[in-house]
Every structure is written in structure tokens, then in C-alpha cells.
Amino acid sequence: MSPKKIAAEKAVECIQTGMTIGLGTGSTVYWAIHKIAQRIHEGLMIRAVATSNGSEQLAQQLGIPIVPFSEIGQIDLTIDGADEVDAHFDLIKGGGGALLREKIIAANSKQFIVIIDESKQVDKLGRFPLPVEVVPFAAELTIRQIRDLGCTPKIRTTDGQTYKSDNGNLIIDCDFGEITQPASLTARLNSIPGVVDNGLFVQMASCLVVGYKDGTVKLEY
Ligand code: 5RP
Fold first, then answer.
1. pTM for this entry
2. Is the dihedral of CA 157, 161, 162, 168 positive or negative?
3. Is the Cβ–Cβ distance between 92 and 84 less than 8 Å?
């Protein structure tokens, strides 16, 4: 079994009947959504809110009851992936472009479980370029201010076209090199007018589930 699948399935064991579940986005969460669907068919009763149109569609196809953001109060448990995780459980997320909804869901969850394979664990964040979501209007002005913080910004494209998030915004992938002060960087980025949010999730994860190539899985708190 792949390390991503092992981590995802372990995290799904934490779900109990009656819970409202946040569904993250990405290839690791893909396995979690499938496992949740399997448990629902075995009798688990939950409802879920999704962090992306892709996760919502997959969940609906598999029979997971989805409720819209507007109908959600608090979320009991969210399961999501990450692009990098450091020793303090600070994360870079947004490789799949879903960072805004992911952060809103995580911030409103009692428990935020991060599922990764071992390759995502790093000493310092920053090898993975930090995704920053910006409104398309006056993007160049916003990008100039982001660059002034000391990074090389690149507008994300897909198949040669400018990538748009589910919210209709641009994603700017920012190479800051090693990120030594994630809390300060996230505050400085989010204070730039035109920045919607960035992919640094600082002190938000409650638990890390790591899948290894040798087939083992480890929970870290
Ligand atoms: C999407 C994300 C994903 O959780 C992150 O990119 C990890 O993806 P994967 O599980 O495919 O490696 O933040 O915006």
C-alpha cells in the first residue's frame, strides 16, 4: 500500500458517527475520501464540508453527504494533506491551489489532522515554493509587494493557461528560500492589500499522520 494511502486510512479511524468532517484536497486526501465512503457504506453516519470543488465532486460521487459552508457551524475533525511539514508542525499547503478554503476549514475545526508521506517532512520550510492567493484585479501591484518581501514570485499556470483557484483568484508560487520565521512571514504577506491568504499554516495542526515506504505509519502530537 502507498504511504499516502496508509496515512489517510489511519486518520479516518479517528472519525466517529455524528461528526462533521472537513475534507481536504489532494492525492493523499483522495484515499481518505475513499475510506470515509467505505465506512459510510458500513454504517458510519457523518456529514462533510469540502475544501475544493474536486473533493466535493469525489465525495458526492462516492455517497458522502456534503453540506455547504453556509450551513456549517463548527467542524469536529478535518483531514488534509500538506506539501511540507516542519518539526513544529508548521505547514506549507496550497500545492493543489485550495489553500484558502483549506485554511478556513482548518481554522474552524476542533481537530486538524494532517496526513502525509515521509517525503513531506522537512527541517525548515521553503523548498516547496509558498503558494499565495491574490485577487486578479491589480495582480501586478500585489505581486510587486510580495516580491519586496524577498522572494521570487511566479504566477501559476496549468497547460499554458493562467491557473485560477476555485474562488476565481490567481495563485502566486513564491520561492523565499528557507523560511525561518513562518508566523512573521504569514502576517506580512496577509497584510498586503490584494493578498487573500497564503499557504503557511502556522500552529494549526493538532496531529500528524505519516506513512512510510516500509508500510508503517506514525502518529505525532
Ligand atoms: C492542496 C493542498 C494539498 O493538501 C497538498 O498540496 C498536498 O497534496 P498531495 O496530498 O497531493 O501531496 O494543500 O491545496
1. 0.97
2. negative
3. yes
Report the nearest atom of ligand 1 relative to the CA of 97: 14
Average pLDDT estimate for 192-221: 98
Question: How large is the ipTM?
Answer: 0.99
The residue whose grid cell reads 475544493 is: 52
Residue 155 phi/psi, 5° resolution? -70, 125
* Distance in angstroms (rounded) separating the CA atoms of residues 183 and 128: 17
Q: What is the DSSP letter of 183?
A: H
Please say if 102 is a catalytic residue. yes
Ligand 1 atom closest to the CA of 26, numbered from 1? 11
Q: Which of 83, 120, 166 to mutate to test the pocket of ligand 1 (most atoms within 8 A of CB)?
A: 83
C-alpha span between 163 and 124 (Å, rounded): 27
Measured from the CB, is residue 25 less than 6 Å from ligand 1? yes
CA 112 to CA 207: how far, in whole Å? 7
**Cβ(44)–Cβ(15) below 8 Å:** yes
Confidence at residue 80, expressed as pLDDT on a 0 to 100 scale: 98
Q: Could you tell me if the CB of 211 is within 6 A of ligand 1?
A: no
Taking only the tens place, the pLDDT of each residue in 89-118 is 999 999 999 999 999 999 999 999 999 999
